């Protein structure tokens, strides 16, 4: 069986750096990336680990910044809830805190060919093949991106505020995570703990669909249990807006896929690509004006150039909600049973698993036992 569960005694946005691979290389196992890549991964992880402070000890310090105290207490509450109500591992993870002093903990490099929405893949001994490479140093990520762009690829550098070592280490809370509002912080923690609970080597689509579903439903349950009715309403509204935005991106992606399949002159294809990406900006402005009353929830997404690399991630990081929703329904709303059912889907052959994950919502609605 090719899925990984968190080790019971030792404990990826949406994207996570594969640090354990560097340690395996040091042990002589090797992989398809060069030694320099693993060296920066091991060095970056070691620096992060050595800066950790025990949360329980910090909370006994009367001089602790009140705002930091509140964030640490909230995180501890969410982790305890995730273990008790969502059947997620909480054995040591997020019991320590590390201040990075940076906007991101890792910068992930994503690349796709000029006329393709299939991302480049990199393979590692623990996590399998994934559509990105993570760097602790922003300049190194930029250098890697420029090398890929020089060969003609569309490239993106994506800042990640969290990552998971998939149970190989006790992952610390990071200042990059704590800076977010309560519900979003809860979502980050639940999402990362979900990756520790179930991770399928080489299948980013399954991993992210599972973690995103647990994040969405898990945060909603936490807000319900803690009586935060207004926050729950805002959380659901945020998810609805995110779904609308993702639908907008999928529409652009689908149009580009049809374009790239045409047998036309490269210059004609290139011009049509630019035109469709320009239209995406206009479509977003219309959505913001007509549906969100001027709110600019996702305007920052357009701060970097929109290209194939950024749209390529949609296939891996969206979808599967209806499939996992049906599993939770089969489980009677019980997350322990749901997680066991998710493991059975993870054990399917790749083609069967992908077909299940991509089953249309209306088909699942007619037969929730799929």
| First-residue to last-residue Cα separation | 21 Å
| Shape by Cα distribution | globular
How many DSSP H or I helices? Answer: 16
> Which parts are unreliable, with pLDDT below 50 for 5 consecutive residues or more?
1-31
Helical coverage, percent range: 55-70%
- Major pleated sheet: 3 strands, mixed
Characterization of the model:
- The two termini are 21 Å apart.
- The chain has helices spanning 19-26, 35-50, 55-59, 66-85, 138-150, 175-178, 182-197, 204-225, 229-260, 266-290, 308-312, 314-317, 321-330, 335-346, 350-357, 361-366, and strands at 3-4, 53-54, 96-98, 106-112, 122-124, 128-130, 133-135, 154-160, 173-174, 199-200.
- Among the domains are: 3-212, no CATH class; 321-366, no CATH class.
- Helices cover 56% and strands 9% of the residues.
- The model is unreliable at 1-31 (pLDDT under 50).
- With 370 residues, the protein is mainly alpha-helical.
- The protein is globular.
């Amino acid at each position: 069986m090719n899925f990984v569960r968190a080790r019971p005694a030792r404990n990826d946005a949406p994207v996570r750096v594969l640090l354990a691979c560097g340690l395996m290389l040091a042990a002589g196992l090797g992989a398809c990336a060069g030694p320099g890549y693993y060296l920066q991964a091991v060095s970056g992880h070691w620096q992060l680990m050595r800066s950790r402070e025990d949360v329980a000890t910090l909370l006994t310090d009367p001089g602790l910044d009140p705002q930091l105290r509140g964030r640490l207490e909230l995180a501890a509450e969410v982790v305890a809830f995730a273990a008790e109500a969502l059947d997620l591992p909480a054995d040591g993870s997020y019991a320590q805190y590390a201040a990075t002093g940076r906007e991101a903990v890792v910068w992930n490099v994503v690349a796709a060919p000029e006329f393709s929405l299939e991302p480049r893949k990199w393979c590692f001994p623990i996590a399998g093949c994934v559509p990105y490479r993570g760097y602790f140093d922003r300049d190194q990520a930029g250098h890697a991106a420029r090398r890929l762009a020089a060969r003609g690829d569309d490239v993106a550098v994506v800042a990640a505020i969290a990552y998971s070592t998939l149970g190989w280490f006790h992952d610390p809370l990071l200042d990059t995570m704590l800076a977010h509002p309560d519900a979003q912080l809860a979502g980050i923690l639940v999402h990362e703990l979900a990756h520790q609970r179930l991770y399928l080597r080489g299948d980013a689509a399954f991993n992210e669909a599972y973690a995103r579903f647990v994040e969405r439903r898990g945060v909603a349950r936490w807000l319900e249990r803690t009586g935060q009715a207004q926050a729950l309403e805002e959380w659901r509204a945020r998810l609805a807006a995110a779904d609308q935005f993702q639908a907008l991106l999928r529409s652009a992606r689908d149009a580009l896929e049809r374009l790239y399949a045409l047998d036309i002159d490269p210059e004609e294809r290139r011009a049509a690509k630019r035109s469709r990406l320009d239209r995406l900006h206009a479509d977003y402005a219309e959505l913001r004006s007509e549906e969100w009353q001027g709110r600019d929830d996702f305007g920052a997404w357009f701060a970097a150039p929109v290209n194939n690399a950024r749209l390529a991630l949609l296939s891996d990081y969206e979808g599967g909600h209806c499939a996992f929703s049906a599993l939770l329904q089969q489980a009677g709303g019980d997350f322990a049973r749901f997680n066991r059912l998710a493991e059975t889907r993870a054990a399917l052959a790749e083609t069967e698993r992908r077909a299940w994950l991509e089953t249309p919502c209306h088909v699942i609605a007619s037969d929730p036992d799929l």
